[in-house]
Amino acid sequence: MDQKPKLTEKKYLIVFIFVTSLFMLWGIAITMGDVLNKHFQTVLSLSKSQSAYVQVSMFGAYFIMGIPAGIFMKKYGYKKGVLLGLFLYALGAFLFVPAASAVSFTFFRVALFVLACGLATLETVAHPFVASLGDQRTSDQRINFAQSFNGVGAILGPSIGSYFILRGVDAGSVDLTSVKVLYVVIGAVIALIGLLFSFVKVPVLSDPHVIATDTYAIDANENVKEGFLKELSWLSKRKHYVFAVIAQLFNVAAQGGTWAFFINYGEEVMGFDSEKAGYFLSLSMVMLMVGRFIGTFLMSYIAPNKLLAIFAGGAIVMCIVAAQGYGWASFIALLLINFFFSIMFPTIFSLGLKDLGRHTEQASSFIVMGVVGGALFPPVMGLIANTDVAKAYYLPIICYAVIGLFGLLYPKLNKNINRA
């Protein structure tokens, strides 16, 4: 009788702790972007649909950087991939200084793009990295556990941003000093973390995704382009993986739109000031973190794909209630969307990477590219939110329906995938 597999092993513990902390770091950056969205509406006199280009810049970087990050990781390994991600993260943060001095939304978008290229690299590397730190049978739990700390970062991001950026900002103000100072501190902290990680020794990893039935290997003499096209062809035949990429695109589309206009919802439906609405955004991230811990526990009893479908159904119900604009009842539903959203990103990611063998690293980069959904959806929601921010929350229902379908169909999609 097989012994129940552990979450990770002792020899991987230090690395596991460090890589898990990366999930928190990009959680801070992503949700701070939603605070910047609102701040730029005030300071730079932007409409909701215009300010949504904060999300376009950030999530668009994921689409551009996904494949290069995967190729870099495959060639140089997990550790150097993490260091590259942290370097770009810090560089983008430091670019906020000249952007603030120029009072230029275009310059800010460049800074956000560079920063998000770092985040995309970290996400591309960290998911298969965490998955490799133990038995594949616990990879769903391991990734969801790490993503729980992404939830911690998602709580900290709006809280930090609301206190240091939104606090005391008056309409018509063009003061960007707080943004400049905050991002200099963030850049310095990320640079220090990168320096510390450069001294961490990563144990030799036996990739749990490599399986005996793997029939494909990249020839040592073939060039990068040939290897990439060969992998792309192989992956395109794995239905569960292709649907995971599509589901992730819709998942992040829903996330980007839901978070981008949360503060506007608090102001226009509930009558809060922007700082108070920002703190409620942090509370919604508590729901996300709680959902991930509970989801990780429930996966010991409910198959991940089934739990994904159940949570997608819950998110659809919450969107319907939030779209009514019924005061506190709708606002609580808006908060609870994050609870049901919580397990979606890591679970889709983990299910998509199942049984892909030595293709896992490159496959990870394509799933990260699906994050471009967060660039496509907020401007569309913004057009509706310009008129009625509550009604804009009908749109994410489409996304959660696709995710629920992925969960329900997964057993059939994943059937006999190891055949060449």
From TrEMBL:
Localisation per UniProt entry: Cell inner membrane
Top-level division of the source organism's lineage: Bacteria
One Pfam family from the record: MFS_1
TM stretches of this protein: 12-32, 52-72, 84-105, 111-133, 145-166, 181-200, 241-265, 277-295, 307-326, 332-353, 365-386, 392-410
Domain Major facilitator superfamily (MFS) profile: 13-415
InterPro entries: Lfuc_symporter_FucP, MFS, MFS_dom, MFS_trans_sf, MFS_TsgA-like
UniProt KW keywords: Cell membrane, Membrane, Transmembrane, Transmembrane helix
Topology with respect to the bilayer: Multi-pass membrane protein
PANTHER family hit by this protein: L-FUCOSE-PROTON SYMPORTER
Name of the protein in question: L-fucose:H+ symporter permease
Lineage per the UniProt record: Bacteria, Pseudomonadati, Bacteroidota, Sphingobacteriia, Sphingobacteriales
Gene this chain is encoded by: fucP
